[in-house]
Amino acid sequence: MSIADIRKNFEQKTAKSIEALKHELTKIRTGRAHAGLLDQVHLDYYGSIVPISQVANVTLIDARTISVQPWEKGMGAKIEKAIRESDLGLNPASQGDLIRVPMPALTEERRKELTKVVRHTGEESKIAVRNLRRDANDHAKKLAKDKLISEDDERRSIDEIQKLTDRTIAEIDKLVQGKEAEILAV
């Protein structure tokens, strides 16, 4: 493994960490509705566990209401039950074939709790990135110890990995601040 391989591997893994953080942040409910909120809700569809998006159209009616339009007549009750039983705290209402999912307004106390959850999720991502940095630096030190690269190359590699780490952590901070602002916006 060369220094270029170490750097490339580090960049790929940190990009995955950022994507994982973005995915986790979309799961955290704000006062606003978005269609991706129901992506984590799954239901039984003829013996298979599938996400709601595979059995119905999920769209927004307005800023606080999601509409779910099942593709089959009999699926409405199952979808409604799956949403109600999910840990999202949503209460769907059926109107014929259409299921309306109103987003309850968040209390100030709940908003503060959610910002703590967002910060914790961001901190977990930072820890993951720091662990990746440690692994990359260990690889560089091992190469130097085995005399495959010079000490100068090792030092350059460690400095480069640190700059990438700093950039990634700044991006994580930016994502966390954006989500906090979104949650605290009334």
Task: Write the CATH homologous superfamily of the largest domain.
Answer: Ribosome-recycling factor
Give the CATH class of the largest domain. Answer: Mainly Alpha
Strand order of the largest sheet: 3-4-6-5
SSE succession: HEEEEHEEHH
Q: What percent of residues adopt helix (DSSP H or I)?
A: 55-70%
CATH topology of the largest domain, by name, is Topoisomerase I, Chain A, domain 4
Number of helices: 4
The count of β-strands is 6
**Low-pLDDT runs:** none
Could you tell me the strand content as a percent range? 15-25%
Mean model confidence by pLDDT: 86
Give the second-level CATH assignment, the architecture of the largest domain.
Answer: Orthogonal Bundle
- The geometry reads as elongated
Subcellular location: Cytoplasm
Protein name: Ribosome-recycling factor
Main location: cytoplasm
Function: Responsible for the release of ribosomes from messenger RNA at the termination of protein biosynthesis. May increase the efficiency of translation by recycling ribosomes from one round of translation to another.
Structural commentary:
This protein is an alpha+beta fold and 186 residues long. It has two domains: 3-27 and 107-184, Ribosome-recycling factor (Topoisomerase I, Chain A, domain 4, Orthogonal Bundle); 35-102, Gyrase A, domain 2 (2-Layer Sandwich), CATH 3.30.1360. Helices cover 58% and strands 16% of the residues. The protein has helices at residues 3-27, 75-85, 108-145, 151-184, and strands at residues 42-45, 48-51, 56-62, 65-70, 93-95, 98-102. A four-stranded antiparallel sheet has the order 3-4-6-5. Strands 1-2 form a two-stranded antiparallel ribbon. A hairpin with a 2-residue loop joins strand 1 and strand 2. The longest helix is centred in the last third of the chain and has 38 residues, at 108-145. The model has no long low-confidence stretch (mean pLDDT 86).
